[in-house]
Automatic annotation (TrEMBL):
Its main location: cytoplasm. 3-phosphoshikimate binds at K10, S11, R15, S155, S156, Q157, D296, N319, K323. Gene3D superfamilies: Enolpyruvate transferase domain (3.65.10.10). Pfam families: EPSP_synthase. Pathway: Metabolic intermediate biosynthesis; chorismate biosynthesis; chorismate from D-erythrose 4-phosphate and phosphoenolpyruvate: step 6/7. CDD domains: EPSP_synthase. Keywords: Amino-acid biosynthesis, Aromatic amino acid biosynthesis, Cytoplasm, Transferase. It is an enzyme of class 2 (transferase). This is 3-phosphoshikimate 1-carboxyvinyltransferase. GO terms for biological process: amino acid biosynthetic process; aromatic amino acid family biosynthetic process; chorismate biosynthetic process.
Length: 411
């Protein structure tokens, strides 16, 4: 048995930072995630002129419902799509000139549906190089509000950015969504907005966000469920037990549902009020599973798939092609290098059983490719990585932490 206390949720930390910045008063954030993405997000807020004070485990943010204090700012969002998509929307509700740029990887990822929606609300927004991509400049003069349509079929983050920004507009927002992925992330957004004082009314595909109402609070960040997937998968793969405290029946994050996939494959799963436990049983069955709602855990499953006793087919994950890298192809490439038979289509991947050979994993600068193949490496000694440090996006200490869990399990 092993208690695996994983770091805080990236998604919850990013939202909490936004909400704290937008709220009246000083918010206390407890156990935020310390990683490149969340550091970039917090630094972005500081550059925009918000008062963010950070001690290791407690961050204090003083909100400004009127918008950024800085009249002008340059914000570098690094690899973080949360920062690159949420912060321009926050800035647009203020008054000033704000420039946003990001790493080469993040510059390639789309922001067009969001920037189109902001423009349709009257925001003066220009793309610096390629239309629909960072860098971009917002010349902000407040947002009146009104009705918009939004295509969220490439990323739910466009919707989250607009929902979070709604209370900062003069009249509120009505957002009609025409397609959507990663729905559980929108549920995190709505639940956290409620914690900061704002209730969004939902009628089918339409979200009505009232103006005003964010209030500072004392908020404890739950552990990261996507990170937990590596330890649950590792337990299933090695016949060990992983208990992740802080992720129980009331957890906000949809990615905790990855344990249902492991249960279908043969692992034992116990969800308690304050923790989730996975125990490997020595059996790992093949399956077909749609992962549209929990696609950050697609690489976790793909990497361990060769050890199943039948094919593993993962469907409805087109949006994993527009993440830190094209994750469908990155998983397929690494599995093929390991000697595994893999097929991919527009939005799916199918992996045949086999015995992976130890190879150097091509991480493509993607933390999830590195962490997923590290898990599979438990059964493939000699696996190495071309860029082990890319885990810093969400879990800078991953390799050391993983080594400690392994030592504890004796694997
Ligand atoms: O809103 C969020 O915090 C996130 C939403 C998801 O992205 P998409 O909505 O782009 O699938 C997820 O993959 C990402 O890691 C975090
Ligand atoms: C897709 C991811 O990150 P983001 O979109 O927040 O950059 C991720 O963490 O897997």
């Amino acid at each position: 048995m092993s208690v695996v206390a994983v770091p805080g949720s990236k998604s919850v930390t990013a939202r909490a930072l936004f909400l704290a910045a937008a709220a009246e008063g000083t918010t206390v954030l407890r156990r935020p995630l310390l990683s490149d993405d969340t550091d970039g997000f917090a630094e972005g807020l500081t550059r925009l002129g918000y008062d963010v004070r950070r001690d290791a485990d407690v961050w204090l943010i003083t909100g400004r419902p009127e918008g950024p204090a800085a009249a002008e700012a340059d914000v570098y969002c690094r690899d973080a799509a949360t920062a690159a998509r949420f912060l321009p929307a926050l800035a647009a509700a203020g008054h000033g000139t704000y420039r946003f740029d990001a790493s080469a990887q993040m510059r390639r990822r789309p922001v067009a549906p969001l920037t189109r929606a902001l423009r349709s609300l009257g925001v003066d927004l220009t793309h610096g190089e390629a239309e629909g991509h960072l860098p971009l400049t917002v010349v902000a003069d407040g947002i009146k509000g009104g009705e918009i349509e939004l295509d969220a079929s490439l990323s739910s983050q466009f919707l989250t950015a607009l929902l979070l920004t709604g209370p900062l507009t003069a009249e509120g927002l009505r957002i009609r969504v025409t397609g959507i992925v990663s729905v559980p992330y929108v549920e995190i957004t709505l639940a956290m907005m409620r914690r900061f004082g704002v209730t969004v009314a939902r009628d089918g595909d339409t979200f009505a966000v009232p103006p005003g109402g964010y209030r500072a609070t004392d908020y404890a960040i739950e552990p990261d469920a996507s990170t937990a997937s590596y330890f649950f998968a590792a337990a299933a793969l090695t016949g060990r037990t992983a208990t992740v405290p802080g992720l129980g029946a009331d957890a906000l994050q949809g990615d905790l549902r990855f344990v249902d996939v492991l249960r279908r494959m043969g692992a034992e799963v116990e969800t308690g009020p304050d923790a989730t436990t996975v125990t490997g049983t020595g059996r790992l069955s093949g399956l077909t599973v749609a992962m549209r709602d929990i696609s950050d855990t697609m690489p976790t499953l793909a990497a361990i798939a060769p050890f199943a006793d039948g094919p593993v087919r993962i469907e409805d994950v087109y949006n994993t092609r527009v993440k830190e890298c094209d994750r469908l192809e990155a998983c397929a490439e690494n599995l093929r290098r390991q000697g595994i038979t893999v097929e991919t289509g527009h939005d799916w991947i199918e992996i045949r059983p086999g015995t992976p050979k130890p190879v150097e994993i091509a991480c493509h600068g993607d933390h999830r490719i590195a962490m997923s193949f590290a898990v599979a490496g438990l059964r493939t000694p000699g696996t190495t990585f071309d860029d082990p440090g890319c885990v810093k996006k969400t879990f800078p200490g991953f390799h050391e932490f993983f080594a400690r869990v392994r030592a504890d399990w004796g694997v």
